[in-house]
Structure to design on (346 residues):
């Protein structure tokens, strides 16, 4: 089965090469979606052997992920792995997440950063719980790490997934898609590396609240 | 029991909205959970219209008794709906802009110009 990694990236020139190199060992193709970066992310990704799709304007993590999923479908992907470009996920965990899909036991695998001993800042833990509760309210489905960008989509999910949210709310929309299509899911504990860089790049608490409100608003407006 | 025009119109609109929500659910555009949320909301609207007495506890809680206050509260309600409408419009425009950016990206990358999601987006 053809496996493609999708990496949405925004101003990640210092990290993207390592992520591509790490992921390439476990997938057939790496697609980087450069989400309107103003630095050298695009050029560095190409130089490291990734297929690059470039957004002319910064559109958000959700939009970049969906562009990557579309690109992967057009390249004939059977399985899609999504991971962040800031090195917080360890590409060596990809086989762990791929296993349940290969065994055809599930349709979507969520990485769970809280499923094993990881050094995660307290604020991030609280923000994640709030994100999980709001996702539960909006979708009726509980996922232990609903806001994590590290996921694997099996053939059924690859065929039908359709994300409309542009920002970080897309993580909750993925949970909604699993509920809507009744996909079988599994959560796999993975490593996570939080550095000063990662924390600075991620969502701030205020941004998290904005995301949470959008999740709830969207669930009503749809 | 004599019904006011509002007591007839509100439940009819609520019924249409509930049917519409479950229709969207059957067509897989809404999840069962969202259909249930909408049903609860519209049943509440219809119940309040048909049995205004259920709001007596609100009268105790808010102390709204005079007509002027009622007009004020109604105006706030209207403003709320106008704001909601504007938010919806902005969301729609944002989505449209994102779709354009994504299509250009896929086309420039030598891929199929976003045809994969074109039909789905148009249908929604």
């Amino acid at each position: 089965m053809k496996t493609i990694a999708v990496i949405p990236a925004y101003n990640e020139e210092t990290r993207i090469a390592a992520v591509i190199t790490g992921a390439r060992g476990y997938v057939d193709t790496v697609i980087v979606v450069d989400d309107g970066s103003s630095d050298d992310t695009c050029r560095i990704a190409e130089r490291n052997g990734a297929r690059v799709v470039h957004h002319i304007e910064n559109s958000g993590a959700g939009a970049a992920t969906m562009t990557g999923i579309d690109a992967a479908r057009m390249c004939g992907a059977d399985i899609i792995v999504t991971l962040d470009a800031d090195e917080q996920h360890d590409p060596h965990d990809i086989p762990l997440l791929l296993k349940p899909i290969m065994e055809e036991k599930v349709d979507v695998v969520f990485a769970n950063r809280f499923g094993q001993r990881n050094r995660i800042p307290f604020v991030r833990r609280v923000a994640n719980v709030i994100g999980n509760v709001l996702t539960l309210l909006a979708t009726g489905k509980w996922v232990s790490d609903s806001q994590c960008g590290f996921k694997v989509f099996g053939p059924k999910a690859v065929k039908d997934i359709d994300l409309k949210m542009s920002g970080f709310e897309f993580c909750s929309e993925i949970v909604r898609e699993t509920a809507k299509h009744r996909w079988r899911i599994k959560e796999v504990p993975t490593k996570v590396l939080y550095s000063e860089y990662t924390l600075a790049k991620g969502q701030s608490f205020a941004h998290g609240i904005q995301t949470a409100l959008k999740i709830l608003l969207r669930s009503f407006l749809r | 029991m004599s019904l006011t025009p509002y007591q007839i119109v509100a439940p009819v609109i609520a019924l249409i909205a509930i049917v519409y929500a479950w229709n969207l659910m059957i067509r897989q555009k809404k999840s069962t959970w969202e259909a249930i949320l909408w049903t609860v909301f519209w049943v509440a609207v219809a119940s309040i219209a048909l049995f205004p007495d259920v709001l007596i506890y609100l009268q105790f809680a808010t102390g709204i008794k005079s007509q002027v206050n009622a007009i004020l509260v109604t105006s706030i309600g209207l403003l709320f709906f106008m704001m909601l409408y504007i938010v919806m419009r902005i969301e729609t425009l944002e989505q449209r802009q994102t779709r354009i950016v994504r299509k250009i990206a896929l086309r420039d990358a030598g891929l199929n110009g976003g045809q994969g999601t074109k039909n789905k987006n148009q249908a929604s």
